[in-house]
Design the sequence.
């Protein structure tokens, strides 16, 4: 059973527009969420995170929104750039889970110039 | 320049053989992790270690073994008991704490001959 779901395997966006990547989770005990970005032939790199005590966290062009009642979070990239083309993983951890972080399957973002 | 190094990048194994994947970090991180990634799936946790000489099973530990004799090193052995070992393996490290982002290596792709 997938506790963290990224239902869109891929997303295509025009350069300069907004990219919105979505993530749903089923475990109500999750209280910390992270987004990672992965280029081909490289390991994932940390992008941005959010704690459940917040509903928004912003870092430059990247903003993560958390809707706890809907068990949904989203990553907004504004404006999108061709260099943003990568696979984005959503991840979550629970206070009861020790050091376990559960990852989604990823969404491949294509930003067209 | 601090980082995490996985070797080799590509590895081939014959049926019935054990194989060891290397993971070294010079980030002075206490915690280290091994994940497996299969097509269309997220990263699944194999083993993790919070401190030297201690490690715990993740969600898919069967057929794998690890050791943590040094802070810098966390090798993963894929044993012959692992029935479907072909996958992409990622090693990560972090400061202790589940809200700490993980730093990943570039992965090892293991294939069965």
Sequence:
């Amino acid at each position: 059973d997938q506790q963290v779901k990224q239902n869109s395997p891929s997303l295509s966006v025009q350069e300069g527009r907004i990219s919105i990547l979505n993530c749903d989770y089923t475990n109500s005990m999750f209280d910390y969420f992270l987004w990672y970005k992965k280029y081909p032939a490289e390991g994932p790199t940390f992008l941005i995170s959010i704690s459940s005590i917040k509903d928004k966290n912003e870092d430059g062009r990247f903003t993560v929104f958390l809707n706890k009642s809907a068990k949904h979070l989203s990553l907004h990239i504004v404006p999108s750039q061709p260099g943003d083309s990568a696979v984005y993983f959503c991840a979550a951890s629970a206070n009861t889970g020790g050091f376990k972080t559960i990852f989604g399957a990823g969404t491949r973002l294509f930003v067209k110039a | 320049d601090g980082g995490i190094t996985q070797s080799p990048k590509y590895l081939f194994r014959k049926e019935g053989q054990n194989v060891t994947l290397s993971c070294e970090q010079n980030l002075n991180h206490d915690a280290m992790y091994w994940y497996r990634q299969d097509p269309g799936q997220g990263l699944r946790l194999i083993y993790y270690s919070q401190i030297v000489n201690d490690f715990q099973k993740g969600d898919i530990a069967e057929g794998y073994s690890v050791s943590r004799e040094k802070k810098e090193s966390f090798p993963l052995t894929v044993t012959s008991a692992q029935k479907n070992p072909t996958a992409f393996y990622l090693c990560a490290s972090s400061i202790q704490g589940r809200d700490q982002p993980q730093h990943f290596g570039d992965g090892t792709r293991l294939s069965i001959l």
User: Anything to note?
Assistant: The first strand of chain B starts at residue 4 and ends at 7. The CA atoms of residues 3 and 22 of chain B lie 14 Å apart.
